[in-house]
Amino acid sequence: MACAESLTVSFAPACTALKKPGGFQNFGYIGAISDLASITYATGAIESLTWDSAKVLTKFTTKEFVVTAESPVVDEGEGNVALITHTVNLPIYFDTQAELEAAQTLLDADRLFVILPTINKQFRVYGISSTDWPFESFGLKVTGGADAPGQNLNDPSRLNLTMTGNMPNIPQFFIASGGTYAASETELESYL
After folding, report:
1. Rounded to an integer, what distance in angstroms lies between the CA atom of residue 47 and that of residue 188?
2. When you count CB atoms within 10 A of the terminal residue's CB, does the N or C end of the chain come out lower?
3. What Å distances lie between residue 65 and 46, 117, 121, CA to CA?
4. Phi, psi at residue 107, to the nearest 5°?
5. Cα→Cα distances 58→12, 13, 15, 25, 151, Å
6. pTM for the predicted model, two decimal places
7. Residues 23/24/26/29 CA torsion (nearest 10 deg)
């Protein structure tokens, strides 16, 4: 039974959580579909999100090059609808009990979405359906992973989580009004 709907915790670990040189250089955003009131689309891309009351997007930080996202196309389902499996592999680093409990909220949550920056300065949205489908009916769920307790030298403690969900569309872009990476990042940061 999943009861944690809103993600009001931080997934930004303390620097001690990494326990090796390099620091945190990658980031993304995560939220719960149930916290969204509406989605604004422009030319097929997501332009903005409207939240229910005081709900917000949550930013996470992680090590560079460890977050991966792929979307294999699966066979057509009933009604000749092609489904695309949105998959996000997300390591959550932790050093304290509070950080570990924050990560637990991801395991308990249903219908999540993740927004990730790409290497070519764009944002992709995983877990939100296209404009032809009700976004409330979709989302990602933690479907696998492993607890890596960091018992070896320079081996950080982390949860290697896999989040998946079947969508009727490939992951869309998040392109805020203005059309630039900076404008999109500013819009996303305003939701925090």
Report:
1. 10
2. N
3. 25, 11, 15
4. -65, -30
5. 9, 13, 18, 17, 29
6. 0.85
7. 180
